[in-house]
Design goal:
The chain is an alpha+beta fold and about 170 residues long. It has one domain (about 10-170): GAF domain (Beta-Lactamase, 2-Layer Sandwich). It has helices at about 10-15, 30-45, 85-90, 145-155, and strands at about 50-60, 65-70, 80, 95, 115-125, 125-135, 170. It has a seven-stranded mixed sheet with strand order 3-2-1-6-5-4-7, sandwiched between helices. The longest helix has 16 residues, at about 30-45. The chain is globular, with a radius of gyration of 15 Å.
């Protein structure tokens, strides 16, 4: 299978966004900015092998994350930190999972047809507070280009901060 190369730069330009000049605040708050990010990413990339995309936020004082917004279908919520979203949150770096079947008990299967996943941390001044999670029905659907492109989208929208921590991608 030939991997799809997604054009994140064109998506950013089409929406007047630039990670070098991030929006300083979302007028309607961070959840509205996350909704906008999902709408932009799903609208531009939903036909490029993504089966699902959404934001999970860490619930303070618990070992769980809750789904904030997603496309195109419902997903598990809340989820424990033992899965890849929890690991991406805990390590505050992107994680590419080429084949989710290799994860065993560390995979939270919301859709049994999903075969690969990308988790991108959401970094704020106080550290990582959530993740952007993308799934695909295809094996090995994501790479470092996707991790960087989605990180750039989050930075441009003022959802996440730029930095080295969220650029050290782990591949599983």
């Amino acid at each position: 299978m030939t991997r799809v190369v997604r054009d994140y730069r064109a998506v950013l330009e089409r929406h007047g966004l630039d990670p070098r000049r991030p929006l300083t605040s979302a007028p309607d708050g961070p959840h509205a900015a996350m909704r906008r990010a999902i709408d932009i990413l799903w609208g531009a990339l939903g036909s490029t092998g993504l089966s699902w995309i959404g934001f999970y936020e860490k619930i303070a004082g618990t070992d769980e994350m809750v789904l904030i917004c997603r496309e195109p279908k419902p997903a598990c919520s809340p989820i424990g930190l033992q899965g890849m979203c929890g690991r991406g949150w805990g390590e505050a770096r992107p994680i590419i999972i080429a084949d989710v079947r290799t994860l065993g008990a560390n995979y939270i299967a919301c859709d049994p047809k999903d075969q690969s996943e990308l988790v991108v941390p959401v970094i704020a001044e106080g550290g990582c507070w959530g993740v952007l999670d993308a799934d695909s029905y295809d094996l090995d659907a994501f790479d470092e280009h996707d991790a960087e492109g989605m990180t750039d989208m989050l930075v441009a929208l003022g959802i996440s901060r730029p930095g080295e921590a969220n650029r050290r991608t782990m591949r599983l």
